Amino acid sequence: AGTHSFEKSAMSQGEQAQTRAMKSLAAVLLVAILLQLAGCSPPPDPVTCTDGTSNCTVTNTYGSFTDRTICHAANVVYPSTEQELVAAVAAAASAKRKMKVATKHSHSGPKLACPGGSEGTIISTTRLNRTVSIDAERQLITVESGMVLRDLIQAAAAAGLSLPHSPYWYGLTIGGLLATGAHGSGLWGKGGAVHEYVVGLRIVTPAPACDGFAMVRELGADHPDLDAAKVSLGVVGVVSQVTLALQPLFKRSVTFVERNESDFTAQVAEWGRLHEFADMIWQPQHNKVIYREDDRVDVSAPGNGVGGLFLFRSVPTALLVGGRAIEEQLQENGTDIARCAAEQEGATRQLPAFGFTNDGISFTGYPIVGYQHRIQASGSCIDGPEDALLSSCAWDPRIRGSFMYNSGFSVALSKAPAFIADMLNLRDLNPDAFCGALDGRVGLVLRYVKASSAYLGKHEDSIDVDILFYRSRTDGMPHAHADVVDEIEQMALGKYGGLPHWGKNRNFAFDGAIARYPKADKFLKVKSRYDPDGLFSSEWTDQVLGINGTPNIIENRCAIEGLCICSDDSHCAPEQGYFCRLGKVYKKARVCSSEEDY
Ligand SMILES: Cc1cc2nc3c(=O)[nH]c(=O)nc-3n(C[C@H](O)[C@H](O)[C@H](O)COP(=O)(O)OP(=O)(O)OC[C@H]3O[C@@H](n4cnc5c(N)ncnc54)[C@H](O)[C@@H]3O)c2cc1C
């Protein structure tokens, strides 16, 4: 199973034209990336106001939350010290006004950055971006919460220290990535999630009038409330400063090993035990798995490699727009044959080693050895000097470039082999469907996260699955084989008790998820103590925390938009031949399937 049935002779003229266009585009894109563009327009501020700092909106890095809305707020404040932060919280609390932190780039897909209602206060952490202290001897760093990961890992390295794990994209802030439980990959030691390395927080919460309406709470490593405050969805207050336990600076040695899928189900539980920074990329349309063999090596090991993941580099905007136009055509009017051909062609032209290089410029062979801070995360598309949108991050909302969904969910390691077996079965039923269903440039990324004491963290060692896939710019427009990702997600969450990543996913993934967190009640108790009036809570956080309402929005085509699981054909797109059907492997799934596939 899994071999593509496309033959050039079987393609229509239109398909051949689509494929040719895709080929030339992929070639130009590759050249552009190889040339390493000097500039890159950094992403726009997610907060904009019509009247100075009043009458504002907040969105995310894609310019579109999962329900395609943007949020309104009465005003924004930009504290640059903890004192100013306390004053900002006090001002909102004394007026009983809702408030919420927005970060420099606002990466979460769901509406986490929105204050409740439409008259709240946005507290931007953009100016809270300094290192407070570094204690090289005790291997501790304390930073302000708006600091982006790039600056944090560089500051640590400059002091001869490493943050052992982090997300792979360095544009996230430490406050935002902790609040959503963000992670890299690893099962050794404390594992791949950043919150495992937090040993102290200073958090500003509302307070009674007699205490001036706001207070700073200092939570040390042994403080029980730290388990609520480190993964908090931003609902217990504003984290002002974070102290992280670091390790002596080390290097890593990385090799991406490509193998067939024959032992994928067995390897999923094992690979993470074999290599400290192991992950896996499943490319279902190519029947292969790319195993990341990634281990710590001594700092004296030769090598100055860089983890410049191609997805996070700047790209000329003209190419992004052209590429998107072809993608839209393939998605909305193309055939499996054309989509698989385009995908295959793109794969042959990809940068080697996903863009990792041995010296910051080119890939010359494995292993790639480099300092932890240069390997663990990348994101050069936020670094460049402003170039008037000649180039940008691929998803920059100011251009009509890439527009994707990002689903992320974890499955307990003990259940991962069965989950993988189910996904393989689903793929085998129609391998070509996966060409259109997923973003073929990467595939499904599987990363390891360890069980955590954080109340909203993982309660078991888990594999975290990440899927990027096409999102139409037209509300309610189905994309090719949308039922594939829908079934995988419903299977992970429903059959295997998976947990959605707080900062990714579409609405339906969060429905009822809080019931699968055994310590959710402890979290809610801390929340009511720290913020009894729920000033940091919003409609969205109340829905996902099971306090009030549901994240589902039931309306025509809601399942196409990921706002619901379909229970009626009208939740799909019957006019375009998409009907609500049973899953093909997980029969309890309800997915929007095209008539042609069923
Ligand atoms: C390109 C890209 C790559 C990504 N890579 C990874 C990855 O490798 N691994 C991974 O796990 N995730 C990844 N993510 C998801 C990402 O981790 C989460 O979306 C993360 O929360 C975003 O961080 P942010 O700084 O943008 O925070 P935001 O999305 O702006 O904020 C998230 C939440 O945190 C709250 N918050 C922020 N700062 C504070 C504070 N100081 N005090 C209290 N609350 C606060 C906000 O109010 C909001 O509720 C990626 C996302 C993108 C777009």
UniProtKB/TrEMBL annotation:
Signal sequence region: 1-40
MF (Gene Ontology): D-arabinono-1,4-lactone oxidase activity; FAD binding; L-gulonolactone oxidase activity
Segments forming a coiled coil: none
Metabolic or biological pathway, per its Swiss-Prot or TrEMBL entry: Cofactor biosynthesis; L-ascorbate biosynthesis
GO BP, one annotated term: L-ascorbic acid biosynthetic process
Residue span(s) of domain FAD-binding PCMH-type: 69-249
Gene3D superfamilies: 3.30.465.10, 3.30.70.2520, Vanillyl-alcohol Oxidase, Chain A, domain 4 (1.10.45.10)
InterPro entries according to UniProt: ALO_C, FAD-bd_PCMH, FAD-bd_PCMH-like_sf, FAD-bd_PCMH_sub2, FAD-linked_Oxidoreductases_BP, GULLO2-like_C, GULO_Plant, Oxid_FAD_bind_N
Protein EC: 1.1.3.8
Catalysis: reaction(s): L-gulono-1,4-lactone + O2 = L-ascorbate + H2O2 + H(+)
Pfam families xref list: ALO, FAD_binding_4, GULLO2-like_3rd
Recorded GO CC terms: membrane
Keywords per UniProt: Ascorbate biosynthesis, Oxidoreductase, Signal
PANTHER family xrefs: FAD-BINDING PCMH-TYPE DOMAIN-CONTAINING PROTEIN, GULONOLACTONE OXIDASE
Family from the record: Belongs to the oxygen-dependent FAD-linked oxidoreductase family.
Protein name (record): L-gulonolactone oxidase
Organism: Aegilops tauschii subsp. strangulata (Goatgrass)
